[in-house]
Amino acid sequence: MADLLSEKARGPAERGRPGWPTLVLLLAVCYAVAALGSLAAADSGDTYQALERPSWAPPGWVFGPVWTVLYGTIAVAAWLALRGDGTRVGRRPAMVLWSVQLALNLAWTPLFFAADAYGWAFAEICLLWLALVATVVAFARRRRAAAVLLLPYAAWVTYAASLNLSIWLLNT
């Protein structure tokens, strides 16, 4: 009875909002993408060290901690966007865009490290950036905090795209 009363007290905007299990699932998806990416580029540290890099390239050890934090924020942003304002308006397009950018995120690592296809990797990361910007816009329509959480990721992808382009130009 208390559950029924609490369900009524929350009102229609609160019913059907994804809870903590959804957040755990989104975190699992994001960290699975990270794990798959690391499997696709098991020797990425050696490859990165062997490349001619610009003077502003970070040391290889920076990437792990940065991506660990970013994947967490990507998941939390999706969870907040799913929760939105309690309505389903714009939920599906936002999550389709989120899924597309995450798939593009996963595709970059094997292109760059396993295939040594720096030009293709640059083209792919540009598509990732576009999908990410579209995701930020869609998330902002659902919940501003979700969009804001993606901004460090967008900044990092911008930086990574610049680094990718520089490495491509220096190593061809």
What report would you give on this structure?
The chain is mainly α. Helices cover 78% and strands 0% of the residues. The protein contains seven helices and no strands. It has helices spanning 2-10, 20-40, 44-50, 63-83, 91-114, 118-142, 144-170. Helix 2 (20-40) packs antiparallel against helix 4, helix 4 (63-83) packs antiparallel against helix 7 (144-170) and helix 5 packs antiparallel against helix 6. The protein is elongated and about 50 Å long. The chain starts with a helix and ends with a helix. Residues 1-13 have low confidence and may be disordered.
Q: How many helical elements?
A: 7
Low-confidence stretches: 1-13
Largest sheet: none
Termini distance?
Answer: 69 Å
Note the beta-strand portion. Answer: under 5%
Overall geometry:
elongated
Radius of gyration over all CA atoms, rounded: 19 Å
The helicity comes to: over 70%
Helices and strands, in order, run as HHHHHHH
Structural class: mainly alpha
Mean pLDDT: 91
Tell me the number of strands: 0
